[in-house]
């Protein structure tokens, strides 16, 4: 039997609640399959850890994580710890140290999900964001000079290396080619006269190697509008770290809400573990009340299964979520229901069990 060792970082706020449900789903799928199993190791890192130890993770945290098959993360951030510390000292350290330069965020309106857009059909919102995940605007390069003085100056530099830009664009072309879909590049070369002119040039260059892929290129402001007025024009999208971060929240709104938005941080070469997590944060406003929607975290478990090569289970989770949404009985309050976090998780396990048994029995 194959064993996948998974590092679990539940994190803060609703992180532990939603991760519990994702782990239930993964364990059930492994049990039903019986050719593989998961071995979960929990790490108590996050804001509570920070208040006790003055750091978000152990000093040798990256070393502790490096041999796992994957990392499953809930969310980090809690009032009392500045957000730039909780983000930079845990999540971004992991993404950068493990060269998880691809952030995959599906924006797909599942059947039964409620879009913020009126009169939109399910097949009109089906896109995959491929966001650069290790440099760009989130490179962390800058300075803070003359702090508190009249001449105070803050510099936040974006870093676009040729290697970093080319590899994310090439990855996106490969996905578009494999799936026979269009590829849209989103940038802002009119205003960002170095970084985004360079981005557009690299996109043009790489496109020459993929004549079969139909491409489009938009400025980020126009893209934000078009995602709302004409979402069907987008299939595969490649964009920078900051633009991808913002636009996928627009994506969440048009595809059923933040409770459904999932993300995978991938090291395509598999030299380091990849990390799977919901897009949402730790939602301190609802933490500990059993109100959080675990579906985004469960969806990110499906991305993990895809990554391990179990595409059929990845698909089963997506269609299981559709079945759950269409029954309308087991929805958390953010989706207009009254179910608790664990009731949704239990229902997903029940739906998947019957789906998978049906398939096995033919
Ligand atoms: N990947 C991450 O770990 C991550 C991402 C974003 C924000 N954060 C952190 O999370 C904290 C809160 O940030 P925020 O309020 O801007 O964003 P948030 O995503 O935590 O919450 C935004 C709103 O969405 C709701 N919400 C989020 N997830 C939900 C879920 N699963 N079910 C139901 N409702 C849900 C919340 O109740 C809140 O009203 C901050 O400390 C921030 O830095 C972490």
UniProtKB/TrEMBL annotation:
It catalyses: (R)-malate + NAD(+) = pyruvate + CO2 + NADH. Residues 5-348 form the Isopropylmalate dehydrogenase-like domain. Pfam families: Iso_dh (PF00180). Its cofactor is Mn(2+); Mg(2+). It is an enzyme of class 1 (oxidoreductase). The keyword Oxidoreductase applies. Its EC number is 1.1.1.83. Keywords: Manganese, Metal-binding, NAD, Oxidoreductase. GO terms for molecular function: tartrate dehydrogenase activity. InterPro entries: ICDH/IPMDH, IsoCit/isopropylmalate_DH_CS, IsoPropMal-DH-like_dom, TTC_DH. PROSITE patterns: IDH_IMDH (PS00470). NCBIfam families: PRK03437.1 (NF002898), TTC (TIGR02089). Belongs to the isocitrate and isopropylmalate dehydrogenases family. This is D-malate dehydrogenase (decarboxylating). The lineage of its organism: Bacteria, Bacillati, Bacillota, Bacilli, Bacillales.
